[in-house]
Amino acid sequence: MYWFILILAGVCECAFTTCLKLSEGLTKVWWAVAFLVLSVISFGLLTIAAQRISLGTAYAVWTGIGAFGTAVIGIIWFKDPATFWRVFFLCGMIGCMIGLKLASPDAAE
Questions:
Q1: How many angstroms separate the Cα of 38 from the Cα of each of 15, 45, 49, 103?
Q2: Over the range 84-106, which residues count as b (16 or more CB within 10 Å of their CB) and which as e?
Q3: What is the DSSP letter of 30?
Q4: What are 53-73's pLDDT values in tens digits?
Q5: How far lies 91's CA from each of 44, 69, 98, 108, in Å?
Q6: Residues 26-37: what's their mean pLDDT?
Q7: Phi, psi at residue 105, to the nearest 5°?
């Protein structure tokens, strides 16, 4: 349950960073509001997840999901370059997050 909450927090991080981009420096009000709301939700979910998942692991996975997801959104939606090495290292991030999950003392949850 707490891992699901952590993944949801990471997805909200991807959403709030996308809203930040779309707000154009917080000048587009509705995107700025969406950024603020999703930020609060994401941090709130991270806080809940960190009650049962070690803080270091929870934070690393949360930022990893956010970084990976935001990079993929950038590639697909904003036409950021998808070079071989960029995709290679993004996939490596996924491997590291899976490793953190498997090495977590509460991996049975």
A1: 7, 10, 16, 29
A2: eeeeeebeebeeebeebbeebee
A3: H
A4: 999 999 999 999 999 999 999
A5: 27, 11, 11, 24
A6: 98
A7: -60, -20
